[in-house]
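## Example record

The block below lists the input lines for one assembly entry, exactly as stored, with component labels intact.
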Amino acid sequence: MTRYFVPRYLVSVMSIAILSAATVVADAQNPPYTVQDGTKVDQKTLDGWKTWRALACERCHGAEQEGLVGPSLVESLKTMSKEDFHTTVINGRPEKGMPPWGGSDMMVKNWEGLYDYLKGRSDGAIKPGHLYPISQ
Amino acid sequence: MKMNYVRPVLGGMAMSSALCLSGIAAATDTETAMDNPSDWASQAGDYANHRYSTLDQINASNVKGLQVAWTMSTGVLRGHEGSPLVIGNTMYIHTPFPNNVYAINLADQTYKWKYEPKQDAQVVPVMCCDTVNRGLAFGDGKIFLQQADTTLVALDAATGKVVWTAKNGDSKIGETNTNAPHVFKDVVLTGISGGEFGVHGRMNAYDIKTGKRLWTGYSTGPDDQLLVDPKKTMTWTNGKMEPIGKDSSLKTWKGDQWKLGGGTTWGWYAYDPKLNLVYYGSGNPGTWNPSQRPGDNKWSMTIWARDLNTGMAKWVYQMTPHDEWDFDGVNEMVLADIPVEGKETPVLMHLDRNGFGYTMNRVTGELLVAEKFDPNVNWATKVDMKTGRPVVNAKYSPGTTGPDVDVKDICPAALGSKDEQPSSFDPKTKLMYVPTNHVCMTYEPFQIEYTAGQPYVGATLTMYPTPNSHGGMGNFIAWDPAVGKIVWSKPEKFSVWSGALTTAGDVAFYGTLEGYLKAVSLKDGSELWKFKTPSGIIGNVFTYVYNGKQYVGVYSGIGGWAGIGMAAGLSEGHEGLGAVGGYKDLAKYTTLGGSLFVFALPDGSGGVTKTASNVQE
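Predicted structure tokens for the full assembly:
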């Protein structure tokens, strides 16, 4: 996972993720999230989903990320790089109606988890709707 | 043409004149134009929000012959709410963001002038998810545009040149505008949107000549900001009107949460010139997570009666204390004098998002009628007529079940048994003709922190057609406001999100999300005519006369809350969890558009015969 994508500013966040989600780190083939039964996920992905929910992303991208006024993220995440994702959520695409979320502490803190969550939705591994921690 | 115009002598006309004109002060140019049925001089056609025309050239027996007279592209896609204005030989049309305004010469449908504002695109994300604008206002020789970025603009009606502008809010903290400005006498009233961004809702009044702010009346907060008199501002209490008392709003909020209190004001206002009172509703309280904001959250979800010149509130009535469902109280306020329990009564009629149709005494604020206008409404069993409070069903109360619990099958959904789509009142039948939603929801609130300029919602919703009903998501109904009963109900596949029009020709018009403009009988709602426009209709139907001929028009251009699913990405194969799950079938019928359609009877078909409402051909 970190082999092909290690921006320097992510290292600290990444190392925490590596420590806390041991099953995920193996190699680039593995997904960045851990999921059980489609609804139980690792803490980082859970925080990503909570960010999705709190910032009301579904108002534009749909409750199932299927797209409304904003594009389908199920589709976008199939091709979008993590770097492009980061740039887009932090700087926005104001001309298209995507807000810049750089001013949101929650987004700045959890954008990677959000990426992981959306990747899981795009892969079909994570189900739409409410998510729970794996421990439950 | 106007010189030769002979007004029809009809009971309805007399009534609307009485409501339009005080008869003492000289009529303003707005009032003169509103009083001339050839014009469509305000969004509702009059101060009383009747959306009724005395024109009868097009009527129940000949409406089946209605044809397209002309069309025009607005040049903008996305949701087209509101309607054009017609004053004399000019039509004024408006668009969703970027809020262009075009003056059209009705003689040859050429542009007289265009106003194309430059607005910061940053406002669009804060408007998420549609960039609607509910139309223009006319008065003092000016056309008023309330831009999305909150700038209120006065344009010279003859030239389109900017006469003055006023800054009405701050989009950086989530304040935007979608409402139409309203001209009452020499005052321009405009509200604010942003109930999902924790804004501090209020009504603003501006001097029509200069754009100077006259007063601001907030929906929540200390008495001086509310513009209330604790001893004189009244509300329905234990079966009678009593003063609201000191700190009536502050006492119903935890700490200073009232500052993020919402109570936005983006609906349709009414004015009674005799009483000099303005009526409007305030919207949902800040955050959709009710557990986070204990208390009644006054005066969100409230009908307000304020003095036009001072803003001082004469009476208030909170319909949905401590909202748990996003039932904004902003829908149109409709004024008329009707018999209630055998006594002619000056009433205010209001069919709320929460599914109850209210009839109030508009002079005193007394609650007269509060009944469900959709039988499937279940969040409350009834309104207790003594306390005026809804009797909430705990099973459908997300505030009772608490955060992170998904409450199922609440009816109506957050977009209400009706939303902003305005009804029509026919002074002859004394009934309201109402475009409605028939949609239920699941509602899961969750804890949320406030950050300025970012969504302050705190709930996840899913919406779907009302279970165990006709399967559709809307109805067009006739409502008797004197007793609170549905007279007839015509099912529709989708929400009816278009403002209705009734005419002295005994026809009601409305548009559908599939794109049909329909004419129905006032008697039973039976369909007399329909025409498929290129896109879904969420605009309001209007009518006017030009050169002796009656026209009926409407915008075609889907969008708005119900129509946002029409944009990119909605594909088959997603289960009904989606927020617009029930609306995704719309993709079979229509796609985005932006055009004006104007209809008339063909020449020689009887449409231009001399009638009471038309003496010149």
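Helices of chain B lie at 11-20, 29-35, 123-127, 223-226, 398-401, 560-563. The CA atoms of residues 7 and 455 of chain B lie 51 Å apart.
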